[in-house]
Specification:
alpha/beta; Alpha-Beta Plaits; four-stranded antiparallel beta sheet; about 30% strand; binds adenosine-5'-triphosphate; amino-acid transport; ATP-binding; translocase
Amino acid sequence: MIVLENLRKTYATPERVSHALAGVSLRIERGEIFGIIGRSGAGKSTLIRMLNLLERPTEGRVEIDGQEITALSEAELRRFRQSVGMVFQHFNLLSSRTVIDNVCFPLRLAGMGRREQRERAHEVLALVGLSEHAHKYPRQLSGGQQQRVGIARALANKPRLLLCDEATSALDPETTQSILRLLLDINRRLGLTIVLITHGMDVIRAVCDRVAVIDAGVIVECGDVLDVFLHPRHGVTQSLLFESGLDAEGWRDVAQGVQGSLLRLSFKGASTLQPLLSRVSRDLGVDLSILQGSVGRIKDTPYGQLVVAVQGQADACARLPEVLRAEGVVCEELHQ
Ligand SMILES: Nc1ncnc2c1ncn2[C@@H]1O[C@H](COP(=O)(O)OP(=O)(O)OP(=O)(O)O)[C@@H](O)[C@H]1O
């Protein structure tokens, strides 16, 4: 488990003092994929670089699996870093070395013998689907393949933690999906904890279990991805969702003059696939008009969210939320 306690980072330049992190506390569970999202300059890179102390906090502590890494000596820190893999936005491969030599590089630094290095490198190249490309140079590969090399290199030393710094930001949408599927696969097969930073909600939705939203060096919202997507509380989260086409407030444009009470209904998991609404509206004798709707998948869980106007007998309309809640639907009453 990773525990971050009251992390602060202040950069002072002659022109200005910048509080990149202004008191961040987080817990990240072993085996989860944890996403950190925020706008440019929010503090994401500073935060992720504290998990392997590429950046030292001005204040606060970082504990990983019970070990306080902020208290390690330089020699201990070098050893610790071998147990943390990192994947970068621009891959950071050595252009004059072949794929296999890039993957062997961290193994050599860890003092592994040459034959073992090659064996391990072949194992991780197979894991990322690049066995046939072992003897090519990075420039002979596509961006997605180069990132696979970056991932293989990060996995070479069998890390306990994988850090991904905007790992898909330089890739096209299709390649992004294939790299995200690879990360999911690695997380499941190896049980590896992954912490990633991104400015894209789509990345969070595709792979993360939990998410923290950072703004101006502060975590403004943190929770299960499904809950944060369906019930964003903070304005920054809401606007990031809006920009990725998941606008929780779109119903307002069409609700003018609509009769009846307004409800936002959130379905997740099995209830998404049931013909629940038509059954309940038939039983209660109420009519529903849909003002906004979205359905999709968050990681493996199907979800749906509808904003509806409810019309009918007053007592039947009043009972609707209670009946739906009993079926596991989250109902919020909305006001124009
Ligand atoms: N080495 C540095 N010296 C001075 N200021 C810095 C330094 N590194 C980061 N900052 C400042 O700290 C703040 C947070 O930067 P950081 O790079 O962590 O944000 P970010 O969310 O990763 O942004 P981006 O998405 O653009 O990479 C910014 O205001 C930035 O200008």
